[in-house]
Specification:
CATH superfamily of the largest domain: Response regulator
Number of domains: 2
Distance between the termini: 26 Å
CATH class of the largest domain: Alpha Beta
Helix content: 25-40%
Number of strands: 17
CATH architecture of the largest domain: 3-Layer(aba) Sandwich
Order of helices and strands: EHEEHEHEHEEHEHEHEHEHEHEEEEHE
Amino acid sequence: MNIQVAGKRDSAAASRGKRRWRGLVAVTLATGFLALGAGIGANATGATTASTSSKPFNLIMIPKNTANPFFSAIAHGMDEAAEALHGGFQYYGTVEPDVPAQVALIRSSTAKAPTVIALSANDPTAPCPAFKAAEADGIKTVTYDADVSSSCRTLFIQDASNENIGGEQLAILGKAMNYKGTFAIISAETTASNQNAWIAVIKSLLKTPKYQNMKLVQTLYGNDDTTTSYQDAVTLLDEYPSLNGILAITPVGLDAAAKVLQTQHKVGSVKLSGLGFPPDDASLLTSGVVSAYVLYNPVLIGYLTYYASYDLAQGVITGKTGQSFTAGKLGKFTIGPEGTILSGNAVIFTPQNVKSYLATYFATSWHDINPS
C-alpha cells in the first residue's frame, strides 16, 4: 500500500493568514486551475462563517488516487477555501486506485480526529463501515466526485448531473461518428460510481432514435492507470479492426487512447472523445486528435466541498433537502435529494475555446500548495 501525503495546511498557520504546507508531494503540481480567491465567506443567514469553535476546523481530503491531476486541482480549490475560512486542510491518498488502502486511509484519518473527512470513493460500499465508525467518533463524513451509499455519509458534492456528463460525452462522439458505427468505452475502475453512472446514461441514450445506428461493442476498465488504459486501447483496435470510435470517460484513458491512435496512425479514422483535462490535454484538441471533450471545474468542486463541510460542522446545514448555504465567492447552493449538492454543468472544450479557458479559467502555477 503506497500511501503518500500530497499536502498539509496547518490550521494554526491559516488563522494567521499564512500558507504553510508540509509533507511529500505525491503528484505534480506544475499546472492547474485558476485560484478562486480568498476572503471570509457568508453563510445562509448572511453572517460570516469564520469558526467560533474552540476546536479548529480541519478537513482531511482523500482522493481516488494521487496520480490523476484532476484531484490535485480539487485539492487546490479546498486550499483556497481553507485560507478563506482560516481552517486546516490535509490531503492523503494512494498513488493508484486501491479500495482496501482507501478504507485504511479513512480509518487512519479518523485516528487524527479531523472535523470532516471528504472522500472520492473508489467503491460505493466498501468505505461505509469506516465512514460510520468516523461518524460514531463525532467526525462528519462527506463525499465529492464519486459517492458512496447515501446511508453512510451526510453530503455528496457532485461534479454535474450524470445525465449532463454522460450525455455530453456521447453527443460529442456521436457527432464525430455521424451517429453511426461501432465504438467502445475505456473507463476507470469497475467500482467507480460516477463513471458507472455515466455508462448507464450512455446505454440508455443508445436506445433512443438519435443514436440507434451506434453500437457499443465493449467496455474496458483502465483503473485510471496509464499503462492499463494504453493496453486497453491497443486491445480494442486489435479485436475490432473496423472500430469507429473510442469514448474514454477518464482523462487518463483519453491520453492513453490518443497515444495509441497516434502510434497506429488511426487519428481521424477512429474518433476519440470523453473526459479531458485541459492543462494536460489542450494539444489533443489543437492538433486535431480529439474534436472536443468534456470536463467540469475541479477547483470549484474542491472549494464548494470545503465550504459545505465547514457549514455542516457549524450546524448551518444538516444535509436536509432544500437547505441552502453560501459558499464564499461561488454564491448560494441548495441541497438536493439524499444530501446531494450539484456544483454546476459540464464544460465542452473545443479547439476554438480551449486557449481562452487556459488563459482565464486555468492557471499555470500551484506553487503555493507545494510543501515549504
